[in-house]
Design brief:
The chain is an alpha/beta fold. It is built from 18 helices and eight strands. The strands form two sheets. The chain has a five-stranded parallel β-sheet with strand order 5-6-7-4-8, with helices on both faces. Strands 1-2-3 form a three-stranded mixed β-sheet, covered by helices on one side. The structure holds adenosine-5'-diphosphate and magnesium ion.
Length: 432
């Protein structure tokens, strides 16, 4: 970007907030905000994505007199669909819901249809059948989208809906103790018709917070208020989560979101392209869908990158352009995904065990450890699904593999030796 355009358009902006993948930027006038929106959105989005390490949406609002002023909402400027909206309920300080995250814009495929159906069921019958609804799945697979989609639906029905991340819950809880405002804190939640808590894994291990959450949970649950939780792993593998909370989570329904298959990835990309209003050649979409499989976030990032590249170079979208603009991502992803054979042989040589034993049933300490590490690496580094891992390891059953996976992820937190072993093997794999 040229210096004059930087000075004119970017320098006078301020960061207002970054929540739920939505970066809110304050612009000094509605003209600025229009220009940023129409001319520079792709560049800003791509750059922000790079800096933040994951795709984000950007919206512009009029900035107040000082950069410290609280986030503004519903101000003029920007594209209307990108406006921030705020709930109609009495609580004044909802975290914002990303307007893009609706149940309608959530593309349904085999990997997420159960979770989506559960979300719909909850919006039709809040507080009745599935309470709490516990959504879980890996990073970038759509948990926040689904959770906020539920929130949006309830808001549209005029319900008082509180959406919060468990980190924010923690911070607010601590602050309320420090400022002796625990009553206000509790009231805020007590008045909710629906409570949505994102990334609940962050409260594991924090006893006082769990205590606070337990009471909030019970109070709402007893009053048949709907609770929906999102988590990056199944509730059973939340180490250091109090038993009584765990049993509460099990009262309702648990629904997982898996990595999308090729067809769903294609559908998500097509929807995303359509929402951006620019036609994208079908071969470009298939190209991206075939090569970016680990998360929806990654998929969207790739599409954004191709868009931005086309914009900046003024070259129309084509397969060739996609290839060029994604080349570094593609080569790095090729490099970092080793085959399952490579992983198994690296694990065997690291622990100095016979590789064939990894697929067997022997339970000596060393072999069990090597097998668990193998499961972990096949999933994390090899990007295999648990059922693929089950068949790779000599047709073991899914629940055994799932058990190993759960065990090793929780062990990792408390066992520095294991962390070291795993990273040593990972290093070998990337070097080799
Ligand atoms: P998580 O909370 O699981 O890490 P997010 O909900 O933030 O993931 O999703 C990452 C991105 O992928 C978001 O931009 C979201 O809109 C998009 N996304 C995920 N799943 C879907 C889907 N099924 N349909 C459309 N967009 C999706
Ligand atoms: Mg999330």
């Amino acid at each position: 970007m040229s210096r004059p355009s930087y000075l004119t358009w970017l320098k006078p902006t301020v960061g207002v907030s970054f929540e739920n993948n939505l970066l809110t930027v304050g612009a000094p006038s509605s003209f600025h905000s229009q220009m940023l929106q129409s001319r520079m959105i792709n560049l800003i989005q791509t750059t922000a994505t790079k800096v933040l390490g994951g795709p984000c949406d950007v919206c512009f609002v009029l900035s107040g007199a000082t950069p410290q002023s609280p986030p503004l909402t519903n101000t003029a400027g920007g594209h209307s669909s990108r406006h921030l909206t705020r709930g109609t309920g009495p609580a004044p300080d909802y975290p914002k819901l990303n307007p893009k995250y609706t149940l309608d814009s959530f593309v349904v495929g085999p990997s997420n249809q159960f979770a989506h159906a559960a979300a719909l069921a909850v919006t039709h019958n809040p507080g009745v059948a599935y309470n709490p609804l516990f959504l879980y799945g890996g990073v970038g697979l759509g948990k926040t989208h689904l959770l906020q989609g539920i929130g949006r639906t309830f808001l549209n029905q005029g319900l008082n809906c509180v959406y919060i991340n468990s980190e924010q819950f923690t911070n607010e809880f601590i602050l309320s103790i420090q400022t002796k405002k625990t009553r206000e804190f509790r009231n805020k939640f007590r008045s909710a018709d629906v409570l949505l808590v994102d990334d609940i894994q962050f409260i594991a291990g924090k006893e006082a917070i769990q205590e606070g959450f337990f009471h909030t949970f019970n109070e709402l649950h007893n009053n048949n208020k709907q609770i929906v939780l999102a988590c990056d792993r199944p509730s059973a593998s939340l180490k250091y989560l109090e038993e009584r909370l765990l049993s509460r989570f099990d009262w309702g329904l648990s629904a997982d979101i898996q990595k999308p298959d090729q067809e769903t990835r294609l559908a998500i990309l097509s929807a995303k392209a359509a929402s951006l209003g620019s036609p994208v050649p079908a071969d470009v979409l298939s190209f991206i869908a075939a090569r970016f499989s680990s998360s929806v976030r990654e998929l969207e990032g790739a599409l954004n990158r191709v868009f931005a590249y086309s914009d900046l170079t003024a070259v129309p979208l084509s397969l060739e352009l996609a290839n060029i603009s994604l080349s570094d991502l593609l080569s790095s992803s090729n490099r970092t995904v080793p085959s399952s054979d490579q992983i198994l042989s690296e694990v065997a040589s690291f622990y100095k065990v016979d590789g064939r034993l990894l697929s067997g049933n022997r339970k000596d300490r060393l072999i069990s450890r090597a097998r668990q590490t193998a499961v972990y690496l096949l999933r994390e580094t090899g990007e295999l699904s648990l059922s693929d891992i089950a068949s790779t390891l000599g047709g073991r059953d899914y629940s055994t593999i799932r058990h190993s996976w759960t065990k090793v992820t929780s062990l990792l937190k408390e066992d520095p030796d294991l962390r070291q072993e795993i990273s040593a093997i990972q290093e070998e794999l990337t070097l080799g």
